[in-house]
Amino acid sequence: MNYEKILSNEINNEDSGLWFVSSSNGNKIILKLPTNTIKSIYKGCTVELFIKIYEYEQTSYLIVGTRIHDSSTHPLIAYGIDRFEGHNGAIKTILNQEKIRIEI
What we know:
Elements: H1 3-13, E1 17-23, E2 26-32, H2 35-42, E3 47-56, E4 59-68, E5 76-81, H3 87-95, E6 101-103
Parallel strand pairs: 2-6
Antiparallel strand pairs: 1-2, 3-4, 4-5
């Protein structure tokens, strides 16, 4: 199964998350979030992007996520672990751009 098919299946099967996509159709970050969180983003709440490398049993895992301050006491955190080839390259391509397209 190719990267785009794997990505499509993952997005369809997750309740929320964040994905970096680099394809012939362009580069973008896709956020799948609850409706009330999307409304808070459109109203101007703070959204942070974070990237972390987690090491476990001599293996490194790339974790990417967002912290969305839609509540003053409990921000929503959506994150994912880089699990398949293609995603890491997409992250590097997108983060080296001056502007990033985000789809919610």
